[in-house]
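Hey, resending since the last one bounced:
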Amino acid sequence: MSLLHVHQMLRRASRGVALLVAIVVGAPAAAQIPAAEYAARRATILDDAGDGIVLVLGAGEPPENYSSFWQTPHADWLTGIREPGMALVMVRRGAMRAQWLLVEPKNPDAEVWTGRRLGERDAARRTGLATRPASDLDRLVDSLLAAGSGPLRVVRHRSEGGELVWRDQRRLDAIVQRHPGLTLDDADALITRRRGRKSAAELALLRRSIDITVEAHREIASRIAPGVYEYEVQALLEYTFRRRGADRPSFASIVGSGPNSTILHYNTNERQMLAGETVVVDIGSSFQGYAADVTRTYPVSGTFRPDARAVYDIVRRAQAAAEAAATPGANAALMSRSADSVLAAGLTALGLIDAPGAMYDCGSADAPRRCRQLRLFYMHGLGHGIGLDVHDPDQYYDTGVLAEGSAFTIEPGLYVRADVLASLPDTPGNRAFVERRRAAVARYADIGVRIEDDYVVTAAGVEWVSRLPREANEIEALMAARRGR
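The structure tokens again:
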């Protein structure tokens, strides 16, 4: 294909996009995020990317037809299209820009198995994009590269292990082979940075997701009691998600009682709860793709026993200290430092560590290191961004500063594992530390506490959105009131 031919193709696509955007914007919006906002996001990415091609591959059809399909967050953020097999191709060359959405065509024989598809015509109406069948993807990319529209920037995705990997590696390898000298550039950072600032429409969806999650917490507060199984609590909260219109849980629901309350990502949820224990309930709904994340720790018997309450109060004070440091324009690291200070002082008062800044031997004989004793009982970060992912990009990751449009969690915790001291390297210093702290660990063993809330930064300040009781006496009152009802 000649350069002139590609130039004409780009011009026709640009005119089509403008016309379709006008049609879509002038019509009543079918979704809460309007087509114009998606178009503005794509335009921003092309501004950031410079000349070249940006290729975004959506998620494929699930390997089993009984598995649920979920779109990749980047593809969702740029198009709002939640169908398998879609791709987005965006091109910029000087002042010329064009975009194509590639989707699976209508096919009644396939749709009877996997559900209805938009097809090209309805996808164009919904998005304002020029559309082509998904089978044209290789041909389109090849023609653009042959006409000198490179480089090719491809959006990667996170694997189950958390690594960024290329989607459809075989296809990308074949493209590189057909175009000697071509290298693939990563476009993930371009979109990740922009996703960190949430729009008003995104915040509205997040608020709804958070509200549903809060309601689920209120529902399960009446169900927690000695003899109840963790999965019974899980069943009720996930029923509440769907009953209130959520898509699904935004992550595997955590209902961890007794020793399971000290496992950060425990989600087997099969143990029977016993009197006197705490149970950590870490849950989030996904509403139109937007993920909430709210955690409460409940006393299984309805009231905290004194040792559990002592741990709980420390965690709550740490959260309050982090909240006080969370102001627009503030350095986000202040939140973590504030919480760490309270947690370390509290652990010292309980006798679980020697002093707020005390260390232990955490390395090996070949590579000796020193680590804070605090980290034996608090080993995760203070919080994270929320959005289309439950651990979503946030602008403070890049700037270090809380700013309008941020949406994030604050979730301090303390976890006293019964075997925590047995895991330490065998050194003289650690042996002495174990002897000093053995009795305290035995006293507080199997108590895990985490308190997590969701916040957004607006022009008015930092707003606590997940408004749910969280002081120890409030938790007890909530459980009593719900049981009475």
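The first strand starts at residue 52 and ends at 57.

Sorry for the duplicate.
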